[in-house]
Specification:
Blueprint (H helix, E strand, L loop, with lengths): L3 H12 L3 H12 L2 H36 L1
Helix pairs in contact: 2-3
């Protein structure tokens, strides 16, 4: 059973904006809408290599554990 403390902590972590969100909002407020869209695209493109690396690493871990068993 999941505790209420875990649920509250998870909710807080999910609701706090990350650095990419803060950067995109600040860019939109100070420079403009077009720059904000470019910043959002740049942040998204920056996440993709990390996503790919973590996915491949997880796949390698699952593959290795399947061989071990």
């Amino acid at each position: 059973m999941i505790s209420i403390e875990f649920l509250v902590t998870s909710l807080v972590v999910v609701l706090i904006p990350g650095t990419g969100v803060l950067y995109t909002i600040a860019t939109g407020l100070f420079i403009g809408k077009r720059a904000s869209v470019v910043a959002a695209l740049g942040c998204t493109l920056g996440i993709l290599p990390a996503l790919l690396a973590s996915t491949l690493g997880l796949v390698a871990l699952f593959h290795t554990s399947a061989i071990a068993f």
